[in-house]
Amino acid sequence: FGVGLFYFEPTLIRRTTLTLGVVLTVFVSAQVLARVVEPDFPSVLWLLLAGPLWAALAGYFIPRHYRELEADDQDVLTTAALGGFAIGPLIFGLMWKTTPKVNRDWIITLGALGAWQIYALFAIQNPTNPCVALPFSATYLTQQTANGIVIGCIYSLMAVGLTLIYSVQGVVSFAHGQLYMVGGYFSFYFLLHAGNVLSNLTNTEVTVNPIWGIPVAAIIVFLMGAVFERIFLKPMHEGLIERVSEYAILITFGFGFFLEYTTLAIAGPFPQKTSRFIEIRRFTLDRAFIGDEFFFGPIHIIGDRAFAMVIGILLIFALLYFLQRTWTGRALRATSQDRQAAAVTGINPTNMNTLSFAMGSMLAAMSGAALIPIFNWVPWVGAEMVGRSYVIVVLGGLGSVPGALAGGIIVGIVEALGAGCHPDPSRGAAYKEAFALVIFALVLLLKPTGLFGREPN
Questions:
Q1: Exposed, middle or buried, 451 (CB in 10 Å: 0-12/13-18/19+)?
Q2: 206: exposed, middle or buried (C-beta count within 10 Å: 0-12, 13-18, 19+)?
Q3: Which of 298, 343, 369, 403: CA 20 to 30 A from 102?
Q4: At 296, which helix (H) or strand (E)?
Q5: How crowded is residue 12: how many other Cβ atoms within 10 Å of its Cβ?
């Protein structure tokens, strides 16, 4: 109703009355929804939902209005979206009738106003929240940021595999989460049976370190991905399939469902977990273990997560070296840029397709094998992680490996800070996936190509 009235350029009195009505409606509806949907749900979060709603409306209608009037629309999308988030329907009154030329000052001012509103709402809801209470708890914020960086590096490893497949084949693998899941299970069962064999040979209980499960899972899933690509995706690139996009979606979805329900039938629905990476006592006299936590002054990081982070970073840099310094890596990059030109130079695009899908699947499996000592593993664990991977790939830019690394770290930090700074600390972790989706929506609205993405030719 408000957008419709603004379209007909209402008078100042009507615009003011409408604005007050919208604000009152938001507050009242927030209180009603907070009591109808969940009585103890913080009503302030319903107010926060109004910001993205107005940002989406302003980001769609205002740039379109500028183009209809042939006005200068540079930075209008960003300004309109930030204005919708910060001041709601008032941004229509500022930009609709006069279509002013916006600049960086508009963006900075509206962005600062939106950040201040978020801070104020959280402070009102919970004045003792360490993220907003004065004076600021620098240690707490630094701890949450460190946790986000650690888990973000692990997220990046899986997202790198997804972006590698897309950059070469132009296909989004909807089985990527299930490949991540089976990688963890391959590691678990290898460690279980290897430990039993060694225990029988030595007549003592032997626990195999989970690090040995990572190459085993990598090899098995690499071969699995190569076989799947040759049988089901190769006909798509040879022109034997009419509707390529629909076929790729359906065949990878089917592969993912097959992996998930086959694993459920074999392993059952019960959570599984391997032993820790490191179980050595610290040399100091305190009660901490190296396998439990690393201390850097007031900052502490869980040892298994730190170990998995190091593995993820090393694998990503190894992949970058492979893509930049080896002939096969350059061939993959050439195929992703121009398949026909790559074929003219002697590169076999069919082999590059198989290699890219196999390597992408392998990276997903390795990330799963690195995380099964940390999280409880169930057959549907891949569905949650693959959603984050799509957010990371879009955030970093489709086809960009450095973008996937940066996007994973950003998503990890946003989730950690969002969960830690939630008005209700006891329930913050339940909403951490929502924070990543908010980032996903903002990137699609403000910079659809991602942080490191390139504009299409």
A1: middle
A2: middle
A3: 403
A4: strand 293-296
A5: 8
Q: What is the pLDDT of residue 51?
A: 76
pLDDT at 42: 52
Q: Report the C-alpha gap between 208 and 191 in whole angstroms.
A: 6
**CA 447 to CA 451: how far, in whole Å?**
7
SS3 of 344-392: HCCCCHHHHHHHHHHHHHHHHHHHHHHHCCCCCECCCHHHHHHHHHHHH
Task: Out of 53-67, 93-107, 282-296, give the one with best mean pLDDT.
Answer: 53-67
**CA–CA gap between residue 296 and residue 287 (Å, rounded):** 16
Contact yes or no for 186/220 (Cβ under 8 A): yes
Q: Could you tell me where in the chain the CATH 1.10.3470 domains are found? A: 138-446
Cβ–Cβ < 8 Å for 379, 264? yes
Residue 104 main-chain phi, psi, to 5 deg? -65, -30
- Whole-number percent of the chain with pLDDT over 90: 22
What is the CATH code of the structural domain delimited by 138-446?
1.10.3470
Give the distance from CA 117 to its chain's centroid: 25
Chain segment 320-368, per-residue pLDDT in tens: 899 999 999 999 999 988 888 999 999 999 999 999 999 999 999 999 9
Regarding pTM above 0.70, the answer is yes
Task: Give CA–CA dist 101/282, Å, rounded.
Answer: 62
pLDDT in tens, 269-299: 888 888 877 654 443 334 444 445 666 666 6
Strands, DSSP E only, in 176-220?
A: none
